[in-house]
Specification:
The protein has 346 residues and is mostly helical. It is 67% helix and 1% strand. Strands 1-2 form a two-stranded antiparallel ribbon. α4 packs antiparallel against α5 and α9 packs antiparallel against α10.
């Protein structure tokens, strides 16, 4: 490496890497998937911190104690669990960084994909700071709820990036009609509300995250739990109605498959939810329910993203290669439909 190369690498490392490395489309997709998986893992391990009462295992931030950056032997298992979860944030950052680098180095350059990677980075940074605030305010349930909601936002951006990495950059073409798309947007909105109310159930419930006296949200836990259950049934009903409509209009396989996946995940999540409710919220089931919440959110977003397709944009003078994500989609074929606003083009 010459002195000029070293200077260029310091000034703009991403451009330096992109000029010397071209990842395959599969590598970019795997990098985006790794970021999504780590976004889910950090939620589950964060739940483990709370459910084991390790939320204040490291009583301060950014250090673990006033005198030590890491957990000490005297802090016991709670300190190890809390500090381990903090260290996983660096693994998450590495996964997001890999996604950013892969997206930036892909040829031709895809600005939107790179921006989605950077959006994840800034959400991670913001949530890391918020996590420190959660510790400093003694696990205030409202800050804990916001911490989870920001993690859900990270999962949303990571899901979109993963999907976009599997598509081209051509103009999106709807696969269903306007009525179906509106129904799916209602489904997404109610699912987001379901997750938000779920944080209130957690904030008012018995698992405070620490063995000491931690304040809970001043709402009737039984009532907010029933509201959460009602919203869950609304989401299930909307999903079933969507599947029925998609079958009725002979929709493409993609939206049907994604709707089926969501319905199965919702049923499993519902079983876990009711079992944990009637068995006094055992920690293992609560953790499984948190994982299920992430999977429900991802599946819902995948239904939304399956309603359109994006062929590869044409770039004169570039080799499209053989990967399916780079091959232009065939021209749309007209077909008969009783209602174009419901069925849409195919």
């Amino acid at each position: 490496m010459t002195r000029t190369d070293a200077r260029d690498a310091v000034r703009n490392p991403l451009a330096f890497i992109a000029a010397r490395w071209t990842p395959t489309p599969r590598t970019v997709r795997r990098a985006a998937l790794a970021a999504l998986v780590m976004a889910v893992v950090i939620v589950v391990t964060g739940g483990a911190v709370r459910l084991t009462g390790s939320g204040l295992g490291c009583p301060t931030w950014p250090k673990c104690t006033d005198d030590s950056l890491t957990a000490t032997r005297e802090m016991g298992l709670h300190g190890v669990i809390e500090f381990g979860n903090r260290m996983l944030t660096y693994v998450l950052c590495a996964a997001v960084g890999w996604a950013i680098i892969a997206a930036r180095a892909e040829k031709p350059y895809r600005r939107e994909l790179t921006r989605l990677g950077w959006a994840q980075f800034w959400v991670v940074m913001g949530n890391a700071v918020l996590g420190g605030i959660v510790v400093l305010v003694g696990l205030n349930p409202y800050t804990v709820a916001l911490h989870f909601l920001l993690s859900s936002a990270l999962i949303a951006v990571a899901t979109v990036m993963w999907q976009r990495a599997r598509e081209g950059d051509g103009e999106p073409r709807p696969l269903v009609g306007a009525v179906v798309r509106q129904l799916v947007w209602v489904l997404v909105g109610v699912t987001a509300l379901l997750i938000a109310v779920g944080t209130v159930v957690t904030g008012a419930g018995p698992h405070a995250g620490d063995s000491s006296e931690v304040p809970r949200m001043d709402v009737p836990w039984e009532d907010v739990t029933r509201l959460h259950s009602v919203l869950a049934w609304i989401v299930v009903t909307l999903t079933f109605a969507l599947w029925f409509v998609l079958k009725a209009v002979d929709a493409p396989k993609g939206p049907l498959d994604r709707t089926r996946d969501l319905f199965v995940i919702l049923l499993a999540q519902g079983v876990i939810g009711y079992v944990q409710y009637f068995t006094d919220l055992p920690e293992v089931l609560v953790g499984a329910h948190m994982l299920g919440s992430c999977l429900v959110w991802i599946a819902t977003l995948r239904v939304l993203l399956a309603l359109r397709e994006r062929p590869a944009a044409t770039h004169p003078g570039t080799d499209s290669g053989t990967d399916s994500a780079e091959v232009p989609a065939p021209a749309a074929q007209p077909y008969e439909a009783t209602s174009a606003s419901i069925a849409g083009p195919r």
